[in-house]
Specification:
The structure holds 2 protein chains of 2 kinds. Chain A contains 13 helices and no strands. By secondary structure, chain A is mostly helical. The radius of gyration of chain A is 27 Å and the shape is globular. The relative contact order of chain B is 0.18. The chains are: A mainly alpha, B alpha/beta.
């Protein structure tokens, strides 16, 4: 029988044999990872460049503020579409975010039972629903019942897309908040809902905001449900009960027209849509980052002065 | 078993300061996680304005027992508590009383410092008051200052109460958590290894804090550190595998333990 120190020496030999080979594998893996990143970024970059290149020439004050001109004339703008997109994002968020956040809270804090699992399952299924189905649903229950296309119907359809996303991301961010904060709250004699709303939610804020912004980005670009609900229009806002234009609808209509000038305007509208979504993202993130960082930076400066 | 229980019953009558009342009494408390009995039929009495240490090797049920005294097990789905726990003669587990009433009288400090991450130092201490409905700024200021002083952290934080609590050092965070627990004006303070995550200097500060607080509060502390039990506590309970083995004045536990196991444990022969 070999002594154990001899055995250990043999084990060490085993380990060291293939270091060179593993370094090569390491390099190859890194290469693959970077390759995949580049493969993902190229289409994204080229889409952005293409949209920017084609769209920028269409953009002017008139384009951003005027109602559409005669078909094929190349005149007029997308004012109503921009207005409609902003209103419809706002309205859908007003319906979808509270419902989504509440469902997320339910799933995270009270969902550890059969009801919770059922809700979570249907929520996940709902998230995968084709948006046109939700559009048809809104068409059936609102447009047909009321007898006309309306902003409400569109907001309803989009909020259906929005709330499962918000619910799931809220749930995940709440679950990330360590149990110890909840325990501290319980030990202070706080009621469960106070702990959830005043302590856990504020700790989970950044994850929830990411989820909400994701869902805003998603509905901002939805076209199919809007065709069935807000229809499209060439007039500015005239009430939540009437049809309205939106950027994806405008882009879709423009791109179907056989005129170069219309297609140019379609590119312009696409660029405006991307900028709007980006702007919402950056503004919201900047606002919350500033709010939570202000204290940090100040106190760090103070701390430095002390040292 | 019977002999042991008798010893425990006798403690209050024979050895301890008879002027003081019992603040908290645990009677035949057992805790089950599913079918595993983690605390077995423990009976203990805690005198007011005293410090009691719970010691014992890992897994002996001391933390589990401590959490009964605040009904923290209500949160744990598979945990079940049997027996009675009396606070000033009132049963904590009485069906008609919401645990919130008792929790406001029983503060708790946890093993790892857990200040609320998004709140400032001031807001952390004020949290228990504000969220329980105290609005008056003057009273809040007063209680926050008072609590931070009681927890011996006031001098270190008084100039930047608006600073986020998570930027304090570990020891300061833990004393902040003590201040937060004290702010709701509890009568009993439960501490679950409050110094185990801290360096020796911070530990010493926490221990000084505990000694000072014992003039006013009934303190029950779980500790892994036997020297700490000797330094801070009036009474010590030794637990092993869910059983309460011996409960007596700290001095007696460490110098003349009655039980063989206790003797081995305090001499450091196992654990």
């Amino acid at each position: 029988m070999m002594s154990s120190s001899q055995k250990r020496a043999e084990y060490r030999l085993l380990f060291k044999q293939n270091v060179g080979g593993r370094l090569v594998v390491d390099k190859i893996m890194m290469g693959i990872v970077f390759g995949c990143v580049i493969a993902a970024v190229i289409p994204l970059g080229s889409i952005l460049i293409e949209v920017f290149k084609n769209g920028i020439s269409a953009i002017s004050i008139e384009f951003l503020t005027q109602v559409p001109g005669a078909i094929g004339s190349g005149e007029g703008g997308i004012g109503p579409a921009i207005q409609g997109t902003l209103i419809i994002i706002g309205m859908s968020s007003m319906i979808g975010v509270p419902i989504g956040v509440m469902s997320g809270i339910f799933l995270a804090e009270f969902g550890d039972n059969r009801l919770g699992r059922t809700v979570r399952f249907f929520n996940d299924v709902f998230m995968e629903f084709p948006s046109i189905v939700l559009g048809i649903f809104a068409f059936l229950v609102i447009v047909l019942v009321l007898g006309h296309f309306s902003l409400w119907a569109g907001a309803f359809a989009l909020s259906l897309i929005m709330f499962p996303i918000v619910a799931r991301t809220t749930e995940e961010s709440l679950k990330m908040v360590p149990m110890t904060y909840r325990e501290a709250g319980i030990a202070l004699g706080l009621k469960k809902w106070v702990i959830t709303f005043r302590i856990v939610l504020s700790a989970a804020k950044s994850g929830m905001i990411t989820g909400i912004l994701l869902s805003v980005g998603r509905i901002g670009g939805e076209t199919a449900p809007l065709i069935m609900t807000v229809l499209g229009s060439s007039q500015f806002f005239s009430g939540v009960d009437s049809p309205m234009d939106a950027l994806p609808l405008r882009i879709w209509r423009m791109s179907l027209l056989p005129y170069d000038s219309a297609q140019m305007q379609g590119w312009g509208a696409a660029l405006v849509l991307i900028i709007i979504i980006l702007a919402i993202n950056i503004t919201v993130r900047y606002y919350f980052a500033k709010k939570s960082k202000k204290g940090n930076i100040l106190s760090k400066l103070m701390g430095m002065r002390k040292k | 078993m019977d002999g042991k229980q008798d010893d425990i019953e006798n403690i209050g009558d024979d050895h301890l300061d008879s002027e003081k009342k019992y603040k908290m009494i645990a009677e035949n408390v057992s805790v089950f996680y599913d079918d595993v009995e983690a605390v077995k039929n423990v009976t203990m009495k805690f005198k007011e304005r005293s410090v009691t240490s719970l010691i014992g090797p890992s897994g002996c049920g001391k933390t589990t027992f401590l959490r009964c005294l605040n009904r923290m097990h209500d949160m744990t789905k598979n945990a079940r508590v049997q027996g009675r726990i009396l606070l000033d003669g009132e049963d904590l587990y009485a069906k008609d009383k919401d645990p919130i009433y008792h929790r406001r009288k029983v503060g708790m400090v946890f093993q790892k410092p857990n200040p609320f991450p998004t709140m400032s130092i001031y807001d952390n201490v004020a949290a228990g008051l504000r969220l329980n409905g105290v609005k008056d700024r003057r009273i809040l200021d007063e209680i926050v200052e008072d609590s931070l002083k009681m927890a011996y952290v006031w001098d270190e934080v008084k100039n930047n109460l608006k600073k986020p609590a998570i930027e304090l050092s570990g020891g300061q965070q833990q004393r902040l958590c003590i201040a937060r627990a004290l702010a709701i004006q509890p009568e009993v303070l439960l501490m679950d290894e409050p110094a185990s995550a801290l360096d020796p200097i911070a530990t010493q500060k926490i221990e000084e804090t505990i000694t000072e607080l014992a003039r006013e509060f009934t303190i029950i502390i779980v500790t892994h550190n036997m020297q700490q039990a000797v330094r801070v506590s009036d009474y010590t309970a030794f637990m092993y595998l869910g059983d309460l083995i011996e409960f007596n004045e700290t001095k007696k536990i460490f110098t003349q333990p009655k039980n063989e196991l206790t003797s081995k444990y305090v001499k450091g022969q196992f654990g």
